[in-house]
C-alpha cells in the first residue's frame, strides 16, 4: 500500500442550545479498531543449511544446521510474544532451501528484515566470537548486475518497492533506481547489524572484538529491497563455542540478544503503517479541542468522554468560563 488520502465525513454536532457547532476535531476510534489497521513488522528468520547440507560440524560432531534451527525457532518464539511483530521461519524443519529461495521468501512475504543465522567453522579451532555481516558494496554492485541481468526479477523488485515500472526505462536509469534502493537498504542493514552486535556483545565474545558489522558478499543477503544481515553466532569449530552453542540456555541468550537488537532497530525507526509506529504516535499524541461558539465546558466533557473535573484540572480552569478559540487539552482516551 502506498500513500492514501482519508476523508472523514462527520454529522454536525448540536450544542445544548440547539446550535450547530464545529465537529469535534478529535479521533475517537477505539484502540482495538485502530490497531486492526496497523500491520505487524515482518521478520524473516533464516536458519542456515538444513537437510543434506549439515553446515559446519564441530569437533564433537555438533551440526550447524541443528544449532541454527534451534536458535531461529527461539528468536521466532520471542518475537511472536511481542505485540507488533510477525516472525516467519524460512525453514522450520530439517530440510534444504536454495539460497535464492531464502531471500525470495523474504521478498514475497514483504519482510521488513531478513536475518540469516549461522555458526560456521574455520580452519583454525582457535577462531572464536560472534559476528554480524551485511552485504558489501562490491556484493551490492554485483548483485545489482545480477538483478538487472534478470529483467523479470529487477522489474519485480522495483515494482514492489516504489511502484515504478522498469520496463520503459533505459539501462542507465534502471541501474540508478536499483542502486538507490540498495544504498538505503545497505545502510539499514548496517544499522540493525550494529544493534544486534551490541546486544550479543553484552553476554559473549565478539569475533576480533569487532563492534561494527562486517561487510561481505553473501549470496543469501542479496535482496535489494529488504535489509538483510547474517549473524555468525559463533565458531562451531572452536571446542568452547561448540559446547556453548550446544547448551539450550546459551542458545536462548543468543536468541534474546538477536531479537532485542531487531526490536531496538524498529523502535528507533518503525516502518510507516506498522503497529509499532502507531503505538509510538499514540504515546506522543495530545488530543486538543478548540472552543467554538455555543460550547460549554460540560458539553465538551460529555462529547469527549471526559469528566468535567478532569477537563478542568487538566486545563487549570477554576470556574466555568471558556472563550471561543481557546485551545483545550483532552486526556488520552
Ligand atoms: Zn553456515
Verbal overview:
The protein is α/β, with parallel strands linked by helices and 333 residues long. It folds into two domains: 13-36 and 286-330, LysM domain (Membrane-bound Lytic Murein Transglycosylase D, Chain A), CATH 3.10.350.10; 41-272, Zn-dependent exopeptidases (Aminopeptidase). It is 42% helix and 13% strand. The protein has eleven helices and ten strands. It has helices at 31-35, 64-80, 99-108, 137-149, 151-162, 171-200, 239-246, 248-268, 275-284, 297-303, 308-314, and strands at residues 13-14, 20-21, 41-47, 85-89, 113-118, 131-135, 214-216, 228-232, 287-290, 327-330. The chain has a six-stranded mixed β-sheet with strand order 4-3-5-8-6-7, with helices on both faces. A two-stranded antiparallel ribbon has the order 1-2. Helix 2 packs across helix 8 and helix 4 packs across helix 6. The longest helix is centred in the middle third of the chain and has 30 residues, at 171-200. The radius of gyration is 26 Å and the shape is elongated. Bound molecules: zinc ion. Zinc ion (ZN) binds at residues 48-49, 55, 64, 118, 120.
Amino acid at each position: 500500500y502506498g500513500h492514501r488520502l482519508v476523508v472523514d465525513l462527520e454529522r454536525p454536532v448540536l450544542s445544548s442550545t440547539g446550535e450547530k457547532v464545529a465537529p469535534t476535531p478529535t479521533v475517537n476510534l477505539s484502540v482495538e479498531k485502530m490497531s486492526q489497521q496497523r500491520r505487524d513488522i515482518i521478520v524473516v528468520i533464516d536458519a542456515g543449511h538444513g537437510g543434506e547440507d549439515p553446515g559446519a560440524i564441530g569437533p564433537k560432531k555438533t551440526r550447524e544446521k541443528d544449532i541454527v534451527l534451534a536458535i531461529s525457532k527461539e528468536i521466532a518464539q520471542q518475537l511472536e510474544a511481542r505485540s507488533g511483530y510477525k516472525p516467519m521461519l524460512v525453514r522450520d524443519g530439517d530440510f534444504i532451501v536454495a539460497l535464492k529461495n531464502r531471500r525470495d521468501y523474504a521478498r514475497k512475504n514483504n519482510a521488513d528484515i531478513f536475518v540469516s543465522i549461522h555458526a560456521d567453522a574455520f580452519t583454525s579451532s582457535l577462531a572464536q566470537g560472534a559476528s554480524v555481516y551485511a552485504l558489501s558494496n562490491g556484493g551490492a554492485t554485483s548483485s545489482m548486475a545480477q538483478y538487472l541481468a534478470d529483467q523479470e526479477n529487477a522489474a519485480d523488485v522495483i515494482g514492489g518497492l516504489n511502484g515504478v515500472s522498469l520496463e520503459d526505462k533505459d539501462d542507465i536509469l534502471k541501474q540508478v533506481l536499483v542502486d538507490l534502493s540498495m544504498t538505503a537498504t545497505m545502510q539499514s542493514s548496517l544499522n540493525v547489524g550494529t544493534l544486534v552486535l551490541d546486544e550479543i556483545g553484552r553476554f559473549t565474545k565478539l569475533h576480533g572484538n569487532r563492534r561494527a558489522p562486517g561487510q561481505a558478499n553473501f549470496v543469501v543477503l542479496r535482496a535489494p529491497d529488504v535489509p538483510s544481515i547474517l549473524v555468525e553466532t559463533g565458531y562451531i569449530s572452536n571446542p568452547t563455542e561448540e559446547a556453548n552453542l550446544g547448551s539450550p540456555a546459551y542458545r536462548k541468550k543468543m536468541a534474546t540478544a538477536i531479537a532485542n537488537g531487531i526490536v531496538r532497530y524498529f523502535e528507533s525507526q518503525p516502518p510507516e503503517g506498522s503497529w509499532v509506529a502507531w503505538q509510538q504516535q499514540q504515546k506522543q499524541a495530545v488530543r486538543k479541542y478548540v472552543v467554538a461558539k455555543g460550547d460549554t465546558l460540560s458539553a465538551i466533557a460529555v462529547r469527549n468522554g471526559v469528566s468535567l473535573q478532569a477537563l478542568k484540572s487538566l486545563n487549570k480552569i477554576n470556574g466555568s468560563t471558556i472563550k471561543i478559540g481557546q485551545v483545550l487539552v483532552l486526556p488520552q482516551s
